[in-house]
Amino acid sequence: MKLRVKYEKTGPLKFISHLDVMRYFQKGIRRAGLDIAYTNGMSPHQIISFAAPMPLMMTSLGEYFDAEFESVTTAKDMVDRFNAVGSPFLKMVDAVILDDTALNSMAAVTTSDYVIRFNSKMEGIIDIKAIINATKELEAAEKFEIVKKTKKSELMTDIRPAIIKLEVREDNSIYMMLEAGSKNNLKPELVVDAISVKLGKDISRFYYDIERQETYLTDQDGEYKSLLFAGKAF
User: Fold this and answer.
1) What whole-number distance in Å separates Cα of residue 124 and Cα of residue 136?
2) How far apart are alpha carbons 208 and 204 in whole angstroms?
3) Distance (Å) of CA 33 to CA 37, 49, 69, 98, 221
4) Which residues of 133-156 are buried (b: 16+ CB within 10 A; e: fewer)?
5) Do the bridges between strand 208-218 and strand 58-68 make them parallel or antiparallel, or are there none, so unpaired?
C-alpha cells in the first residue's frame, strides 16, 4: 500500500541536510513500529522517496515523501506513533493513500511558496523600506534577467516567468510562489538576489530566513493543490 506523507521541518533542524532527514525518517519509522515495506535482495532497504529536497538553512511546513507499507492503521494513528518517538521540530502532519496511477511526489511537484523574513542582523546595514520598494519594482517588471549558476556554467536567465506570485505582507515579510520540481525550478534565494540587484546592495543570506509554506501539484484545471490532493484519506 502506497502512502504520501506530509511533514514539517522547523526550528534548529534547518541546519541538518536532506540526507540526515532521510535517515531520520528511516530510523523513526522503525522505532515507531510502522509496517513499512522493504526491497528484496541482499541489502533490503525501505521503499521511500522524497519530493523537492530542502537545502540547508530553510524551514518548511509542507514537505512530502512517498512510501510503501505492508499494512496501515489510520493516518492519525500512524502520525501520532511516529511523532511520539521523534523530534518536535521534524514531525509528520498527515498521510493519504495513493492509487497505482498517481505520479510519485518528485514528478508531481510544480510549484512551492515561501515566506522571507528579515532578521536583526540587517539592522543598520540595509533599510527594510528600500527592500520593499525594490520588491515591488520586481513584481511590476515584465522581464528580469539575472545570472543563474549551475554546477557547470553560469547563464543569464529571465526569472520573471517563473515567479507566479510576489508580494510584500503587512509585517514586511515577502511572500513568493515559484515554479519548482524537476522541469522548472526557481530557488527563493535567486529571487532575493534579483531584489538585491534592484536595490543596488547585496542582501546577505544571513540577513533573512526562508520558510517553505507548501509544495503543490497542478490539477486538470490548472489550479495549484497540495500534494495530498492526489490521494485519499484513511
Assistant:
1) 22
2) 8
3) 12, 19, 11, 21, 40
4) ebbeebbeeeebebebeeeeeeee
5) parallel
The pTM assigned to this predicted structure is 0.92
Nearest Cα neighbor of 72 from 155, 142, 162, 5 is 5
Give residue for cell 544571513. Answer: 206
pLDDT digits (tens, 9 = 90+) for 146-158: 988 777 778 888 9
**Residue 232 reports pLDDT greater than 90:** yes
Angle, vertex CA 99, rays to CA 59 and CA 81, nearest 5: 50
How many CB atoms lie under 10 A from the CB of residue 216?
Answer: 23
| Cα radius of gyration rounded to whole Å, the chain | 19
Euclidean distance between CA atoms 43 and 142, whole angstroms: 53
SS3 helix, strand, coil % of the chain, rounded to 5?
Answer: 30, 35, 35
pLDDT in tens, 81-129: 999 999 999 999 999 999 988 999 999 999 999 999 999 999 889 999 9
For 102, the enclosing helix (H) or strand (E) is: none
Phi, psi at residue 13, to the nearest 5°? -75, 5
In sequence order, the 6+-apart residues with CB closer than 8 A to the CB of 76 are none
